[in-house]
């Protein structure tokens, strides 16, 4: 093997390792930045990108853990809304009924989002 072929092969291997390290750092940064945000849609574009880019087992594990955590957060929030929908503050009956409906609707929405996150985590 001549030195040009040897050099080209080693550079290719180095760039693959370097690319993998950069991808891991990007995923961690993405999780950090968007882990605290609550979007309107269950799976945001950045989360879809995270799922698509999870190509090896280690990246899939990171993405799956993130999605499972998001599902748990949404389930916890749904439970809070359910407890608020059962809470009676007194006051006018009509406004109380509307408030109960609002919290039930929010709980259902959070449960739907949790199921979407769980489904995506199971697909990885």
From TrEMBL:
NCBIfam families, per the entry: LIC_10421_fam
Protein name stated in the entry: Uncharacterized protein
